[in-house]
Amino acid sequence: MTSETESGAADSRRRILFDIAGFASSQYTLRFTYIIKGFLVARILGPVGTGMWQHFVLLFEYGLHSHAGLLPGLSKYLGHVIGRGDDLSALDARRSGVGGVLLSAVILFLGILGYVAFEWDSIHPVDRWGVPLVGLVVVMEQLTNAYKANLRGY
Length: 154
Known about the structure:
The protein is mainly alpha-helical. The radius of gyration is 23 Å and the shape is flat. Helices cover 89% and strands 0% of the residues. Helix 3 runs antiparallel to helix 4 (125-152).
């Protein structure tokens, strides 16, 4: 009986070590892949193209945080309200959360449009249309994330 317990403990330790090694190696593989991708993109696009690409990527990445913490809070609050069985509060929270996310994304989009409008002459022609399009994509992405937060509550 003790040999089965010891072999089970050894198996679980082996499994834990295997999981840790798998996670660590996947993280390093992912980082290495991103480095290679960066070199390839820089080589293909050249210095100006890479700069424009990074410009759009940064706008998109930072724009996704325009909800200012509403989405994580909505996910947590909805779970508690639905768990209590308070459907009216859940509906109110869903509406308020989506409205807040939409408002924050639209404010970001209007800020981007204002920047492009006031700096039109000094902005590269690609950025004149590309930056507002990235802002529009951010608005749509935020609405999608708000919808997913509402679904996670159930």
